[in-house]
Give the backbone structure.
Amino acid sequence: MTHKLLEVKNVTKVFRIGGLIRGKRLVAVDDVSFDIDQEKPVILSIVGESGCGKSTLCRMFLRIYQPDMGDIVLSGNSYSDKKNYDPTRFRLDVQPIFQNPYEAFSARKKVDTYLYNTALRLGIAKTRKEASELIDATLKSVGMSLAVVKDKYPTQFSGGELQRVSIARALITRPKLIVADEPVSAVDASMKMNIVNLFKELKDEYNVSFIYVTHDLSTAYYVSDYMATLYRGSLIEYGSAKEIMDSPGHPYTELLVNAIPRVGQKWDQELVMPDMEEKEYAITYCKFAPRCPYATEECRQTRPEMREIAGRRVLCYHPLVESGSVDLGRLSEG
Amino acid sequence: MLKVENLSTSYKTIDGDVHVLNDLSFEIHENEIFGIAGESGCGKTTLLKVLYDIIDFPLQIDAGRVVLSGKKDGKSFSYESGQIREAWWENVSYVPQAAQSVLNPITRLKSQFLDSIPEAARKNETQEETLERVVTYLEELSLSPDLLDAFPFQLSGGMRQRVIIALATFMSPNVVLADEPTTALDVVVQRGILMMLMRLQKELQNTLVVVSHDMGVHYQVTKRMGIMYSGSFAELGNTDDIFADPIHPYTKMLIGALPRVGDASQKVGIPGRPPALTDPPAGCRFAPRCPHPSGRCSHDVPEFREVRPGRFVACHSAEKGKSNDTQAVGS
C-alpha cells in the first residue's frame, strides 16, 4: 500500500493569550485537513491574510509546534507516534526555507558552514571532499556555485542570491517536502520570478514537493498545482490553484483574488476592511459571515461544513461555483 | 508642485562617497498621483528623503535643489531644499516606510494626534475642540473615534497604517509622500489602504507620491510614474502608456516578469544583479544586464531625454519619435 506524502488530519492548534484564569483561547489553526499525493511532486500554496494561521500550520509541518488535536502523517509516519520518531530521518525528509534569508543565516558565520553542516551532520556525505562535491552540484542547480559562495558572509550577497543559497541548503538532504514560509516576500520584485521559477524546475529535478506559503496570489497562481485558502484558522477552500483563482468558490477567496493589484484591470468597487480580529476567531457561526457580501441568516446561525463541489472543497453554505460551473459544464464526469 | 532641478546627492562613507542620485530633473504636478518604482537600493527612499528634506549625515546634496511650491488657503508659497522643514505637516507630509513602528508605543493615539498638530494650526482652540476636529476627520475616513484612546500596540498593522495616513493628511497638506505604504500588509488590507489614499487624494486635490516596488500597485494607483535604476530614472511618463508600451529595456523586463492571474505562461526574472553604487559601471548602468546592449552603452552614459511628449527615457536605443505610430493606435 502506498502512503500519501503528507496527510493533515483535523489539525487544531490553540494558543492561550494572557494568564491562565483571565486569558483567552485563540484557535490559530482550526480543524484543517488535506493531503498531498506521493506519486508526483506538487507545489501546494497556502494563502490567506496575516493572522490566518499560515505560519502556525507550517511550524506544525516542521514539528516546531505540536498540534493540540488531530494528526499529521508524513509518508505513513505519524507525528504523534513519538516512539518511532527518528529526528535525522525527519530532517532528511522535510526541510524549511524561511522568509528572510538574512535572518535565517547568522551574520557572523560564513554561509558555507551551514551547507557543510547540513551535509556532514546528517550523514549525507562522509568526508569533507564528498560534501564539497555534493554542495557544489546542488548550488549549481540553483544557479550558484561553491566557488562563488565559499568564504563569504551573508551580507555579501543580495537578498535573491542568499535566498537561492538557502534553497540549495534545503536541497542538500534531497528532501521529499520543502516547507517555504513566505520565501519571496523579502526578495526584490525583479528577483522574485527567478526564485519562483526555481521551485518549478527543482520540483521535477529533485522530485520534491513544495508547500509554498504566501500572500502573493499572483505568484501562487503562477507556480502552484494546488491551493489551500485559510481564513481565521479554518481551511475554507482547497483544490486546483488555477481553477480556484479563475473562478473562486468561497466568497473570501473571491475577495482575495479581487484584491490583487493586477495589471490590465483597475479596481472599481470599495471593499470591507477587517476590523474586530480577535473576536472573529471565537465566532461560532461562519467566521467570514460578518464580512461576507452573500451572507444569509443561515450563515449567522451555524458553521457550514466542508463540501465537495466542482472538484474542490469549499467551507461555505453558498459557494459561488456551484451553479456557474455546472452551467458551464466545468464539472467533470464522476 | 514639486520641482527637482539637477539633483545629485551622495552618502559620505569611510570607503568613499556613494553617489545615489545623479543629476535628476523632473516635476511632480499638482493634483496627481506620482509613482516611483525600482528594486531595493536604487535610490527610491533617498529621493523621497530629499523631497521631504530629511538630509542628515551621511546623506548630502552635492548639486541642485528641490522646490516645493503651491497655493494653500489663497496664499501661495514656495520653499526650496533647506527650508522645506518649515512646511512640514502644513504643506507636505510623509508616511514613512514600516509606518507600523513610527508611533510611540507608550502614549495613546490621542496625544500623538495633538502633538503633531502645530500650534499655529490650532487657531486658539482648546484641546477638546482640536480633538473634536480629529474625531470628525476620523469618521470621514470611516475610522472609529475609539482609536484615540488606544495604544498603538493594540491595533493591527493595517489599522496602524490607516491611523498614520489620517495623521499625515489631517492638515490637508499639498503634498503627501508615501514610502512603501503597504509593505508587510496582506493583499486585502493593501487594497483597502491604497484605495483610502486614492480617495483622500481625490478629495484634497493634492499631490500624492507613492514609492513601491510592486508594479501592480503603480498600475492601480498612479497617474504618472518614474522607474528608477541604480540612482537615476530609467523611464518616466504616463503610467498607462508605460504599461501599454514600455520603451526602456529595464521597464520592459519588469513588466514582462509580472506574474498575472489567468496567465500561467513561463515568465523570466531579470538576470544578474544591480551594480554596486560604490563602483558603478561606466556608461549605461543597465548595460551589463541589458539583453540588447550596443557598443556605445558600455562607455557612453545615455541622456535622460523626452522621446515622446511627456515620456522620458534614458536609453541609447530609444529613438526619438520611434514607434510613435503604435502609441497613437494604442491610445
Observations:
- DSSP finds nine helices and twelve strands in chain B.
